Amino acid sequence: MKILLTGKNGQLGQALQTRLRGLDGLGDGLVEVLAVDRTQMDLSNPESCRAVMQSFQPNLVINAAAYTAVDKAEQEEALAFAVNAEAPKVLAEEAVKLGAALIHYSTDYVFDGSKQGAWTEEDVPHPLSVYGRSKLAGEQAITATGVPHFIFRTSWVYSLVGQNFLLTMLRLAKDRKELSIVADQHGAPTWTHTIADATVRVIQQLQQQGKLTEQIQKSGGIYHLVAGEQTTWFGFAQSIFAHPSVLNKPQLHAITTEQYPLPAPRPKNSVLSTKKFQQQFFVLPSWQQALKDCQEDL
Fold first, then answer.
1. Is residue 159 a contact partner of residue 166, using CB atoms and an 8 Å limit?
2. Could you tell me the residue ranges of all domains in the chain?
3. Which of 54, 64, 70, 294 has the greatest number of C-beta atoms within 10 Å?
């Protein structure tokens, strides 16, 4: 099996590279992974995407690359759509030609946050921001091609690399004794290793049932893939600083979304139901346990 992984230097791409090594030995070790970054495959350039696909001819594409600068996207709409919508479409079209399958990652930002209770895969998306609209367009473009696919929507992604809430909190705590954190947005902080581990476990599970592309065709579609349970950004920050490994523990103040205005509006309810994923595959760890495991790696 030949796997093309995009976004190898991103926080999710790095986690996937590590976890995909575990596929070696499944099927007598006949697994080849080509991990590419933007210098090897420019997602803003359709021809670059097509060239890599045609040259490598993968059986499975895992698209972990994305334009994720949520606020900057408000001024860079064309680039956000090129990377988050047009590139996934091209990858899906080329995968169809090769008889390959596609795994793609999307976001809670496809919803407007107005619902009471957890969002399901059947709920109608209504993004509030350019970023959210670009990610929704990517979902729709993939689905329209008919490629065997999984679209995994996730939320509040963090890790020990890149730019994310966990690292921002730890950095700010070195210089500040007090931090104001938004307490009226709800969601599930999700460690990149949770996403990567689940992705590979799904691949392994389906491989054991038959040809991977055929199995993805049968059980694929949109799934919510986030850690179990929910919290707020304020609650997330409290848990980060409660860990024994964190020496700088600032005083935290709860504030509202309106008190911390940003260029791109955020959904106040980003809680995604994982019932569909868990019924089809397995139960995902709680965000509390995942955060603990992540911080142990510090």
1. yes
2. 2-157+190-226+271-285
3. 64
Per-residue pLDDT reduced to its tens digit, 238-292: 999 999 999 999 999 999 999 999 999 999 999 999 999 999 999 999 999 999 9
User: How many residues comprise the chain?
Assistant: 298
Q: Please check whether the domain covering 2-157+190-226+271-285 is classified as CATH 3.40.50.720.
A: yes
Q: What whole-number distance in Å separates Cα of residue 123 and Cα of residue 139?
A: 14
Q: What is the dihedral of CA 46, 163, 166, 121, to 10 degrees?
A: -20
Q: Residue 72 to residues 64, 80, 130: CA-CA distances in angstroms?
A: 19, 9, 9
Catalytic residue positions, numbered: 131
The pLDDT tens digits of the residues spanning 44-82 come to 999 999 999 999 999 999 999 999 999 999 999 999 999
pTM beyond 0.85, yes or no: yes
3-class SS shares of the chain: helix, strand, coil, % to 5: 45, 20, 40
pLDDT digits (tens, 9 = 90+) for 133-182: 999 999 999 999 999 999 999 999 999 999 999 999 999 999 999 999 99
